[in-house]
Design goal:
This protein has 152 residues and is of the alpha/beta class. Helices cover 38% and strands 22% of the residues.
């Protein structure tokens, strides 16, 4: 399955030059726990990192540092992982496992942000697939009953 079919295309973003208070406002307004950090090249948004609500708390609040005095680029995850929108389901699942992450930003062929996939979407796909397996088993029982009706 290609990620393009399951990706969330509306991704919360923040510029790398924004401060942490601005990032927190984006998270609050869009009801998300992370935002993709981008740099602008004309009208294109190129992902350069990701920042979570936890990153903000442990880098500022834990030390009494005002979040408006720290830039996003100084706190964003240094080990940024993304996948291509054309990648397959198991590729992104393996990236998540390998890097211990729950969200993977997706880029198009030119490196422009094109979506986001999280464990939520992957679980939904797997749940649908398991439901299909159950239906196969149920149907197999029906077919068996049609072929070999009970003798009473």
């Amino acid at each position: 399955m290609i990620l393009d079919k399951i990706a969330n295309k509306k991704v919360a973003t923040v510029l790398q030059t924004a401060n942490l208070q601005d990032a927190a406002k984006v998270m609050r307004d869009q009801h998300v726990g992370s935002v993709v950090v981008v740099k602008k090249e004309g009208i294109r948004e190129l992902p350069v990192g990701i920042i979570t609500d936890r990153d903000i708390v442990v880098s500022t609040s834990a030390f009494g540092i005002p979040p408006d005095s720290v830039l996003v680029r100084d706190v964003m995850s240094a080990s940024f992982v993304c996948a291509k929108i054309s990648d397959g389901f198991y590729r992104v699942l393996n990236l998540m496992k390998e890097h211990g992450i729950k969200r993977v930003p997706l880029v198009d062929s030119e490196g422009v942000l094109a979506g986001m996939v999280s464990t939520h979407e992957l679980i939904a796909v797997l749940s649908d697939e398991l439901n299909t397996v159950v239906k196969v088993t149920d149907r197999q029982h029906e077919v068996e009953g049609e072929r070999r009706p009970r003798l009473i």
